[in-house]
Amino acid sequence: MTSMDEVVELPEDFSGRVRLFPLPDLVVFPHAMQPLHIFEPRYCDMLAESLATDRLIAMATLAGGPQATFVSDSQIHPTVCIGKIVSHVETEDGGHNILLIGAQRAKILRELPTNRSFRMADVEVAVDFQPVIASAQSQQLKRSVLDAFAAVIPPSATVQHNLHELMAGQMGLGPITDIIAYTLPLGLEAKLALLAEANVGERARLLIQVLRERQHAAGATSPAGGAAYIGTASQNPAADGFPPPFSLN
Predict the structure, then answer these.
(1) What digits encode the pLDDT tens for the residues 14-26?
(2) Residue 154 pLDDT > 50, yes or no?
């Protein structure tokens, strides 16, 4: 078992009961690192319980957009990402900065009545699986994912080096698809569809399809010979030093 596997492994006594942290327009994926600033009293309560017990929080996506944040029982999408707190710092104003790493995707079975200030649910963990295929087929699928990824990010020597390392490295297809899906601004529905797919091969094919559709849609406005990239100005990869370095552990 690699160090990353150990970090994202759920406790042996995990009961399937999770604390829910619903946020709008955010989809967290396994293996992705998500910084969070927590300041609302109900979520400070959630954090305190998490830190005192299993250090787990299930990140959920609100179905109603930002306005749903202020409704206590707003609908959430049924697939969540169980995350593990790996870093915590209390701020001077009584808030908290945490770093969460996605551990496992899961499906909400039922929300629970609770006397807590935050929401809880029973979930079913959806562990990654991949039907047995030939090694050459698996490598080709990995290459296709990275080629589709390369087509929508700015070409540079650093980017190409990172992609080469990913191709040659031991990181599996599942983590690669999750990290790419988390990092790129693919649109909420596309991200939720990718999070909901536990079949690694099918998730990779869906990601390739989404990336190619985005590249095609942007092709008419992209500079000749340049890579197409879909995103807002704040997500401009050239401005933000995109893509980030990948851990090959």
Answers:
(1) 999 999 999 999 9
(2) yes
DSSP state of 152: T
Fold classification of 3-126 is 2.30.130
Report the amino acid identity of residue 230: I
What is the residue extent of each domain of the chain? 3-126, 135-240
**What rounded mean pLDDT belongs to the chain?**
83
Alpha helices in 91-168 (DSSP H): 135-150, 157-168
As a whole number of angstroms, the longest Cα–Cα distance in the chain is: 59
Distance (Å, rounded) from C-alpha 100 to C-alpha 69?
20
Q: Do 16 and 71 meet the contact criterion of CB atoms below 8 Å apart?
A: no
> Is the distance from CB of 26 to CB of 59 less than 8 angstroms?
yes
User: Phi, psi (5° rounding) for residue 134?
Assistant: -65, 150
Q: Is the distance from CB of 147 to CB of 159 less than 8 angstroms?
A: no
